[in-house]
Amino acid sequence: HYWWLVVTLLGSLLVFLMFVQGGQSLIFGIAKNKDDKTVLINALGHKWELTFTTLVTFGGAIFASFPLYYSTSFGGAYWLWFSILFLFVIQAVSFEYRSKPGNILGKRGYELFLFLNGTFAPILLGVAVGTFFTGGAFVMDRLSITDYNQPTISYWTNGWHGLDAIVNPFNLLLGIVVFLCSRTLALLYIIKQLNMPQLVAKSKIQLRITGTAFVLLFVLFLYYLFTLTGYSVNPENGIITPIKYKYLFNMIELKWSAVMLLSGIILVLYGLGTSIFSKGKFSFYLTGSGVILAVWSILICAAFNNTAFFVSTVNLQQSLTLYNSSSSEFTLKVMAYASLFIPFVFAYVVYVWRVLTKKKIDLDELNSPDSHSY
Question: What is the pTM of this model?
Answer without folding.
Answer: 0.92
